[in-house]
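Same chain as my last thread, 292 residues:
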Amino acid sequence: MLHAWQARAEERYRTRLREALRGRRVLITGASSGIGRAFALDAAAAGGDLVLVARRREELERVAGECRRRGGRAEVRPADLADIGAVRELTEALGREERAVEVLVSNAGVSLRRPLASHRPEDLERLAAVNYLGPAALTLGLLPAMLARGAGHVVHVSTIGTQTGAPLFAAYVAAKAACDHFLRTLRLELGERGIAVTAVHMPLVRTPMMAPSRIYELFPALTAERAARRIGWAVVKRPLRVAPRWATALELGHVLAPRLVQRAFAWGHEPLHGWFGRRLARRDRLRAGRDR
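reply #2:
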């Protein structure tokens, strides 16, 4: 019974995504791995005409080949979103082409787990460039064509950290929050001009970006494929935002009972991470013993 339900849900998702994306030009950033790659494969199977953006050409070419095998069109546009000049060159080149980008999936991001007091100014600069300035510049560069057509969709992949707070990730969350507010204001200014703006607040996802923080190997997390499905449904339904209910409840707690939330984090954050750290160390010792 469960298998049949899952099969029906899968078919419904694929059908709705085909209706939303077939023949449409979709630009996906961070497309070389993780969530971006997973969504690119879904969009290709739906018949999308994809523009894949990331820094690494070789990885992009590999993903583009996978997309073509799934029935979609795909071209690669290597660019570093931390370089505003490179973003401008990309959007100007796209603007000269006959076909405009109809859907922007702004997925690229970079994270850093470190106590705030240990951050360096250059850390702040890099995180702001990739998670806010680059996506904002890309959106601005693609917006005139969307306005001219009176249609388009901007999907920004954010984090639940902007709702809940995230100790040790202050600079990352701040940069993501800046982009959230940029797009919220853009949505208000666009009004009823036919352009949707959606923020997708992702929980923890198992991607290469989380690899440096080994403690999260033991935390509950989405696969890249399930995270990509959240983007897919966002493209289909065009909501204002996508977020877990529990994260939205905690966001409300920051407004209604900020001191209570602060105490909960103070009491629970370090003990929880300490417990997971001990479990990880124990697992590593067991693996080392088996490998001898």
